[in-house]
Request: fold
Amino acid sequence: MDSTNQSLKPLTAKLNEAGNLEIGGCDLVELVEKYGTPLYVIDEYTLRTVCADYKEAFKKYPKVNMMFASKALCTMGTSVILDSEGFGFDVVSAGEIYTVYKAGVDMSKVLFNGNNKSVDELSLALKLGVGRISVDNFFELSLLNEIAKSYDKTADILLRITPGIECHTHEYIQTGHLDSKFGFDLTQVDEAVELILNDYRNIKLHGLHAHIGSQIFETSIYGDEIEILVKELARIDEKFGLKLDEINAGGGLGVKYTDKDCPPSVYTIADIIINRLNECIEKYKIEQPALFIEPGRSIISTAGVTLYTIGSSKQVPKGKKYVAVDGGMADNPRPSMYGAEYSAQIVNKASAEPVENVTIAGRFCESGDILIKNIKLPELEEGDILCVYNTGAYNYSMASNYNRVQKPAMVLVNNSQSDMIVTRETLDDLIMHDKVPDRFKNK
Ligand SMILES: *Cc1c(COP(=O)(O)O)cnc(C)c1O
Reply:
């Protein structure tokens, strides 16, 4: 069965009677008149449908827990929606912990991840009662034990392991290969378990965690990952008499950024994971563990688009035509960082024939600030509105204030209604943290 991550556009995207593109029943031209550009737009219907896909696909396994990987998009508004869908949260910083906490999330449904968590961050996690901490390395194991001891608490943890699986995605977003910066090598697991059992009295180990990468299109590697996790559970039980009852298989499922991308369905991935898990439970004779999965990109990417206003253009004699928009690498660093590709449409010319090949340039002072290298669009004029698809994940969450440009606003759309969920930064926001030393004043 198909799932929402296989769609290029939000599910509610359509051409309306005015001849404009609309999403969530909202005419995008009107949205721009109201909120300005650049503007992030999140379609609530698409987001909730993705959540429904995941829940439906995994319901065959009785002990399954969905966690949303917050680093893909972490705002209070979207966290409230995911919370209402029954998702937990995978977080990677004090900022993400604080955001979901303030959004009213039950902190026992939160897992704290990361390869170099600070003392302050670990302390905050313990203080707020974060459900699980995924410990990444020996240094952190000892540090966490000390901090937990000082609070007279027990830290409930998973061990993040490196399963030695290479997926064919961009090098920067591979995480499961053997020389990755993340997690314990399989040869180090025994030592970690011994330390926990013998020395680290303020740590309780519940299970194992792995995450093999991002924007993954291969399906079989999820099965291989599950087998490695289950095999380790069985081995730890046999060697230490310790029954661990949780496995976390991470996230990573891909989405469709352009027509060339054919990501697998959530239903296919779920079947592979659950079938292999059931086989492995038999094969390695373990009790049925709780299964955690933590998708990020495939939950939020398709629901999001970014709207830009087209400004200047430049025809290089006998060369490319550049068309510049009022955003770029600061609101979407992925093209300049990974060579990521995107699809787009002109909102106010949604039914017009594409006639010219152009390069969409950003407004930031780097030659590498190109949003889309080559795209065929209708004849463009200054003031046209460009809608870039699939920007819900790793856009706002990776945004910066490069060139001291304010970060865009974010609007949630549903049933013809729009609500601002992140306000546009103001010029005063930009200088809010600046201080001029007193000795430079009154001169
Ligand atoms: C980034 C990350 C995820 C989510 O990855 P997606 O590709 O966005 O699904 C899940 N788990 C961990 C540990 C991660 O670091």
